[in-house]
Amino acid sequence: MNSLILVDGAIEVKIRFTDDVGFRAEIIFRYTDNEHYYTFTLSNEYDGATLTKYSLDNSEYGVNIADSGGVGSYPTQKDTEYTLRVEIQGNTFRCFINGVELFSGTDDTYSTGKVGLKARRAIVQFDDFKVSRIP
């Protein structure tokens, strides 16, 4: 069985936290294994968004490449829909919520890998998951 590998492109998903204080909902990209990948994360618990790299050095919480400005910088609400989108071109990653670019970051550690979704200590609904070329 072959796996689809993403080099460059856009990943988009609609999310909705259905608990009052969920920890994280994430788009995972350039995933090689459980210790080598990137995430674009929205946190209901900390009301912020981050672009994070996971590696052997910090496989539990990763190292932030960019963020929305820290705790409280992007307030979220229970039962509210958010559209997360990350655009990946070479070593540059642009992160959007509801069509507005929050931040971008660069890193050249991982150049290819799988994509996916993850919820961590949160009850989250995912919908309309899309992987596409960047126009």
Write the layout of secondary structure elements.
Blueprint: E1 9-17, E2 24-33, E3 36-43, E4 48-54, E5 63-67, E6 81-89, E7 92-97, E8 100-106, E9 114-120, E10 124-132
Antiparallel strand pairs: 1-6, 1-10, 2-3, 2-9, 3-4, 4-5, 6-7, 7-8
Offer a few descriptive terms.
single chain; 135 residues; mainly beta; Jelly Rolls; five-stranded antiparallel β-sheet
Describe this structure in words.
The structure is a single chain. Helices cover 0% and strands 57% of the residues. With 135 residues, it is mostly beta strands. It has a single domain (9-130), classed as Exo-inulinase, domain 1 (Jelly Rolls), CATH 2.60.120. A hairpin with a 4-residue loop joins strand 3 and strand 4 (48-54). The radius of gyration is 14 Å and the shape is globular. The relative contact order is 0.34.
